Amino acid sequence: MKQDDDGETVADDKRASGLTRRRLLIGGALAGGALLVGYVATHPMETAGALLSAGGRDFEPGPFGPYIRIESDGRVGIVNPQQEMGQGIHAGLAAIVAEELDADWDKVEILPAPVDFSAYGPQLTGGSQGIATHWDKLRRTGAAARTMFVAAAASRWGVGQGEISVSNGVVSHPSSARRATFGDLLADAARQTPPQEPTLKRPEQFTLIGTPRVQRKDSLPKSTGAQTYTQDVQLPDMLVAVVAHSPRFGGKLARFDDRDARRVTGVVDVFAIETGVAVLARNTAAALKGRDALRVEWEKAEAEHRSSAEISTWYAELAAGEAQGEVEPLVFESRGNAEAPQHRGAFETTIDFPYLAHAPMETLDCVAQVDGTRVTMWSGAHHATADRVLAAFNARTLPGRVDLNVLMAGGSFGRRGALSSDYLVECMRIARRVESRPVKLFWTREDEMAAGYYRPLAHHRVAVALDDDGFPADWRHHIVSQSLLPVGGNAEACEGVAGSPYFTTASTVDCRVTSPDLGIPVTFWRSVGHSHTAMTMEHVVDQLAARAGRDPADYRRELYRRAGADRRLGVLEEACAKSGWGTPLEDGWARGLAVHECFGSFVAQVAEVRLTEGRPIVRRVVAAVDCGIAISPDQIAAQVEGGIGFGLSAALYGCITINDGQVQQSNFDDYPVVRMNEMPAIETHILPSAELPTGMGEPGVAPIAPAVANAMFALSGRPVRSLPLLRGTTANLLPAID
């Protein structure tokens, strides 16, 4: 036995194979979402695919490419390379292929893609980009396959390809009334050469895309309980694992006493891993009971000890320039002379945002089995390519020898996309200790609430001077928030502010971001930076409109016209028309408006709100959406509804608080979410568009908080200075407005 480059003991044969951490290089090219993996090479992209499949089972695409598999009975399997976590991406992607292929939607089956870099490139799901990034590729795939069937039929019947038509999986020659299914022509079509530039349909020729026929394919198994999630995976001789983590972020294991834990019936082993103490048992109950019986001491010296209140105060000082030299801000948008003093009487405000948990219904879980250098895993992997690489790294094998079975996830909202792949890596480290036996790791709700990762705490400081017409002439904006990535200047915290049409009339713009370094783990949260920038921008604009004596909708109209923001103007007009903006409501009710662009999609929301002892009651939300070509209107509406529920939960209740480096929340009793009786009636109106399609998994989240806050402002005249709007436990929630 010897030590590797990180001081860890490894077997001689593993060291001889060259699988040390220094040799197995993971190049995280995070810009653009790509993860490039390879040994030292002259060009990472040329070697990435080779390393990822090295030593693995080569993926062999069929005659129609890696996305289409057609059976002899005419069934069409369309491969989904994206993570399905409830957003319905599997149906949307399949509909793109089926449209160009002219397949029978009722005979379309959706298949999970193997994790294979050479076939699918980097497989990751995020930023509502699944549809946008696959639109052209999948259209060409479907169109190419259709052309191959047309060529096969024309050859068999001795007619010109221009005389052939395809509809619902049937190829026909109308002049002679000859017909054949895809299954009938499969062998002949498979011998055709795929065209390099197949002819694509024009949008007016679509017969599937944009119609109610595009429905989810997983509703029945989910409704009956037949859908398989990671928790449902059962394997022979499988062990269940839980981990005791440090109660403080950054705390290190000092020592532990496992004698009582080992006495628990069903406990098989207890041992330390990098992130805490693992308890392995034959069943879930024994694992949890064994963990409860542990006596653990943690080193506190390097742990985080700050509280949320301390961090918020520090952030406010940074934004106000009262903590110079600690963290330098970066300018992300500048115009005019930012050093000149701002006009007296400028509007000034600050808004604070707390840490937020993701709280998906399915907590973190993973199943792993290590057999020599071969690894098999099951997980609702969010970033499958990165997860596979990090699993291999921790199993001391090559990525190509890791078979990662990507299962549907019961929600994620970004939590399964943490760049560290923390829970999956934890499972791999445990599985290495019991080689050949499968291990199922799961985190309880309390584990997930306490151990990270979170939407970052953020502070916005805004000062705006108005011109004689009441529009922004001088806009100063400072954002303070942790960065989600080690590179990129914290662009995620700036999205939704950078390039805003509200800056159009301003001769001076000074926007800065400060990115403090803390020991609290943060990651992407549904709608990412838009989750706080939309609230800030839209609530500020309503207050500016009030200062100018203008209706909030009219004020936005003028700014959008001046900025040439036609798509924002379009959703604004639709939402106002459908909500009855400007018409009277009953006493005590008011409407609030918000318009926001998020990941290329434009959403306007109008919320009807009343205040009961300061508590907002939301009864109706009207949403207008422009997401380009709408592939599945039903699913778009579902995502808007889900996004509003998710965003409303955060706006009303969402708050992770930290005291002395420890999270105070543990479950839904002190981290409430909106109940069914609190959900408003939601109407979604989709604007027709010929623009390229964009995603809807996240854009519905961002506008709901400012829409509600703006209605509250209309009712009370008091602006919101912090979220959530209600604070406390489910039994004692108090309004949090000035």
Short description:
The protein is α+β, with helices and mostly antiparallel strands and 738 residues long.
Describe this structure as you would to a colleague.
With 738 residues, the protein is of the alpha+beta class. It folds into 4 domains: 2-52, no CATH class; 68-216, 2-Layer Sandwich (Aldehyde Oxidoreductase, domain 4), CATH 3.30.365; 230-302 and 361-450, Aldehyde oxidase/xanthine dehydrogenase, molybdopterin binding domain (Aldehyde Oxidoreductase, domain 4), CATH 3.30.365.10; 311-342 and 454-735, Aldehyde Oxidoreductase, domain 4, CATH 3.30.365. The protein contains 19 helices and 32 strands. The strands form 10 sheets. It has a 7-stranded mixed β-sheet, sandwiched between helices. A 5-stranded mixed β-sheet has the order 16-24-23-22-17, sandwiched between helices. Helix 16 (552-563) packs antiparallel against helix 17 (566-579). Mean pLDDT is 91; it is low at 1-48.
Outline the secondary-structure elements:
Blueprint (H helix, E strand, L loop, with lengths): L1 E2 L5 E2 L1 H5 L9 E2 L8 E2 L6 H9 L15 E3 L5 E5 L8 H13 L6 E5 L4 H4 L9 H28 L7 E3 L2 E4 L4 E4 H9 L28 H6 L14 E6 L7 E6 L1 H4 L4 E7 L2 E6 L2 H9 L2 E5 L8 H12 L10 E6 L11 E7 L11 E7 L2 E6 L4 H12 L6 E5 L15 H12 L5 E4 L2 H6 L7 E9 L5 E10 L9 H4 L13 E7 L15 H19 L3 H12 L2 H14 L9 E10 L2 E12 L2 E12 L6 H20 L5 E2 L2 E2 L17 E6 L17 H13 L9 E4 L2 E4 L3
Parallel strand pairs: 6-7, 11-21, 19-20, 23-24, 27-30
Antiparallel strand pairs: 1-2, 3-4, 5-6, 8-9, 9-10, 11-14, 12-15, 13-14, 16-24, 17-22, 18-19, 18-21, 22-23, 25-26, 26-27, 28-29, 31-32
Helix pairs in contact: 3-5, 5-6, 11-12, 15-19, 16-17
